[in-house]
Model the fold of this input.
Amino acid sequence: MSVYDNSEQAVFVLLGEAGRELTGKPASELVRSYFEANGNEGVNLEAPVPEALISTIGQKHKFCVKVIEHNFSGKTRSLTVTKILPLDTSPATVSSEDNQTTATSKETSENRVDSADGSKRTCDSSELERAKRPKCGN
Done:
């Protein structure tokens, strides 16, 4: 999903419950309906956007995102959304070691993770406790 504000664009990847919470439908249903509508035309075909995604245009959402080292050093500009939060949720930064600190968005962007397998999540700590933990391989 491409997200725009008045100055920047970002790409968010919504997986599992976060995607279902935003669209009201599981990703498998969106993919199935895409192929039913477009047959064997292939992925290079320009296809209409599913209604479940069109209905999100113009809405405001607050996301809990997973940020890994690749987000700072890689060429991709996408973030993985792990949860959709209520708009009135206060910002907090929680590392994979569960050290919790409140931070502004500027402080969060300056506070990079040095380990290649380390990650940071930006969301409310009470919401994080209810969310699934990411699996980190060694």
Confidence is low (pLDDT under 50) at residues 95-122, 124-138. The first helix runs from residue 16 to 23. The longest strand covers residues 78-85. The radius of gyration is 17 Å.
